[in-house]
Amino acid sequence: MLRYMESIEYPIRINKYLALKQIASRREADRLIQDKQIRINGKVAIVGDKVQKGDSVEVGSGAKALAKKRIYLAFCKPEGIVTHSPERGQRSIADIFDFGERIFPIGRLDKDSRGLIILTNDGRITDKLLNPDSGHEKEYIIRVDKTVNPEFIDAMRKGVKLDDGYVTKKCVVESTGAKQFRIILKEGKKRQIRRMCEALGYEVTDLLRIRIMDVRLRDLRAGEFRQLKGAELQTFLQGIGMKE
């Protein structure tokens, strides 16, 4: 069963935070707190404590007995499918994919784009993977409506002023065909690549994400998935400062 993680509004009570992160139910969280198994910014938490945005929450070894099997999937999202909060008439990942476990997508890939997205039941990784200051790489193959010239590539590399005045960070961009290029971003503004291209007079006709950090799409076709395990999983978790 695919579910959508409820967004966290800070400050938030520690037991609710642990429940939303899929670490424990609220009742189980209260027991962990009473057993001094939870720390906030290095300090032992007490019932009623609140978590502020940016706080470090540590879970002690006593919580391991509550831990369920954590699942991490590389999924190839088809074009035309939304990742979060579908509106009436829209199709979501949940409409085309049933893994049999309660999992949710990490991050977004807009409806008109396709390619790699991570699905998991591990709420611990959400903030670590999506933190805008983390600098985690995401790689894309882009097709546009007209010939890619050196001036376009150079402008994309140096940073583009978007319609809201934001200037994108320097990034890796290289031409891979007459109307195609590869781009590696370390940030993720809403519809960023499409807006960068539009600012330079180009229109994106196809956007395929092929990599998130060291996790690659490989040969997955639309709607297919593979479970992350072994060295691939270890490298991914280490990259965000986590362990299984």
UniProtKB/TrEMBL annotation:
Keywords for this protein: Isomerase, RNA-binding
GO terms for biological process, alphabetical: enzyme-directed rRNA pseudouridine synthesis
Domain RNA-binding S4 span(s) in chain numbering: 12-71
Enzyme class label: isomerase
Any one GO molecular-function label of the UniProt entry: rRNA pseudouridine synthase activity
The EC number(s) this enzyme carries: 5.4.99.-
Stated family: Belongs to the pseudouridine synthase RsuA family.
UniProt name for this protein: Pseudouridine synthase
Organism of provenance: Candidatus Wolfebacteria bacterium GW2011_GWC2_39_22
